[in-house]
Every structure is written in C-alpha cells, then in structure tokens.
Amino acid sequence: MKDRKGFYWFLLPSVVLFLFATVYPFISGLNVAFTNWDGISRDYDYIGFKNFIDMFHDSNIVRSIWVTLAFGIGYTLLNNVLSLSIAILLRPKFKGNAFIKTVFFIPMALSPVLAAFVWGFIDRNILSNVLGSSLLGKPATVLWGLIMIALWSGIGSNIMVYLAGLTNIPNDYYEAAAIDGVTVWQKFRYITLPLLGPSFTTCITLTLTSALREFGITMSATAGGPARSSEMISIFIYKNLFSFQKAGYGQAVSLVFMMILMVLGICMNRFFRSKEVEL
C-alpha cells in the first residue's frame, strides 16, 4: 500500500501538468467555439452553431483541406517507403552501422523551427542555383520543399521502429525460404511485409496523423505562402485565432479537425491491427 502511495505522488506532477496544459484549454475552447470572440476583447456573445455552419461555406478551408491532405499523404508514403528501405539496408551488422543510424536520428533532436530555417537557407542559396528556382518560393513546388524538410527532420523515428520490427523476425524463416529457392522479392513480399504488421500500424498511423496536423515547419518556412499554396489546416486555424481576430471561428475549426484526427487514427489503427500476422 505504501508503494502505491509513492507511485501516486510521483504521478501527481504529470497529472497536474496534463490538466493545466491540455484539459483546461480544451474545455475553455469548447466554450469559445460557440461565441463570436475576437481573441482580444473581454466581451463576447454566444452565437450557437454559427461558426460550425460557416465552415461549410468557407472556400479557404476547402483549399486548406486539400493542401493538408496532399502534404499528409505524400509525406506518409515517402517517409515509410524510405525509412523501411533504409532499415532493411541497415539491418545487417557492418562497420559504421551505428554511426549511420545516429546520423539519421540526429535531425530529430532539432526543433522544427530550426530545421525550417536551415533548409530555408539551403533552398535560397543552394537549391535555387542548382534548380534555377526556389522550391519554397513557388506554389507548384512548395509542398515538395516542405515534405523534404519534414523527411529530413522526422524519418529517423520510423527507421528505428522498422529496424526493431526486422530484428524480431526469426532468421529461420529466411533460411527455410533460401533452401526452397525463394527469390529476394518473394522473401520480402511473403515474409518481411506480413511480419512487419505491428511496425506498419505504428509508423503509418502516427506519421499520417502527425503530418495532417503539421504546423512548426510550415509556419517557419512559408507561413502558408506563397499565395496560400501551403496553408494547411493548422495554419488556417492559427491565422483565424491570432491574425484575423476570429478566435471563435478558429476554435470551432480546430475542434472539428481534432475529432476528424481522432476518428482517422482509431480507424487506421483498427484496420492495420486486423491485417497483422502473429509470429
């Protein structure tokens, strides 16, 4: 009993911080979403579901949804394909293996803001000279530039997850397949992919949901420009909350977006869990 009391005392600071930093703002946001508050004045009026109704007539939010989906799907596909490929290459033990793993993981220690500034400098001073134009400065290529920054900054975590999944696959399966004359592609298709089910569940679900709520890199690199071509939902919410003085509307959009992310995450998790193969 004494050990349990000690456990609760150690848990208390985290619970208090969670309540203060997450639960309280969420409850306050529920109230603001039903008002016309501008984010500055002390007075506001309750307007019912008007903010939620206005969302269906806002052309800007439709554009932001498409931009968010394009970035999220593109980043998720490239991240998982590249991280799985690198993990397969790094699975065998060789000299310098640990150093290469560290190189891929180091960018994750940098903040998204710093990563955006570093790659913004590279884009303006190096890539623009090589390619003839800036990736981040053109509407047609800005999302590719943001995906490139996000990949450099976040691919390391998925590499580690896939490496752990590959390590858990018994070598006996590959040895038996080699005796039967199975090709490299067949080993990958019928052994590696099915047994990496738990890794796919973790990586794809977390990568997509985090990409859809991307904010730091985009805000630091482009702030939604040029011409709103990189204005994702997170940037749209931020601008309404702090720039357009439409805090009530911005909060309503953020609540709907949060619910969509929750439902999407749960559905994806259940889908991939149902496809997993037990060892």
Annotation keywords:
279 residues, mainly alpha
Give an account of the 3D structure:
With 279 residues, this protein is an all-alpha fold. Helix content is 74%, strand content 0%. It contains twelve helices and no strands. It has helices at residues 2-32, 50-54, 59-90, 97-105, 112-131, 142-167, 171-179, 184-195, 197-212, 216-221, 233-243, 247-275.
Give me the secondary-structure topology.
Elements: H1 2-32, H2 50-54, H3 59-90, H4 97-105, H5 112-131, H6 142-167, H7 171-179, H8 184-195, H9 197-212, H10 216-221, H11 233-243, H12 247-275
Helix pairs in contact: 3-6, 3-9, 5-6, 6-9, 9-12, 11-12
- Helix-strand string: HHHHHHHHHHHH
Number of helices: 12
End-to-end separation in angstroms reads: 38 Å
Radius of gyration from the alpha-carbon trace, in angstroms: 23 Å
**Uncertain segments:** none
Number of strands: 0
Shape descriptor reads globular
Put the structure in a nutshell.
The chain is built from twelve helices and no strands. By secondary structure, the chain is an all-alpha fold. Helix 3 (59-90) crosses helix 6 and helix 5 packs across helix 6.
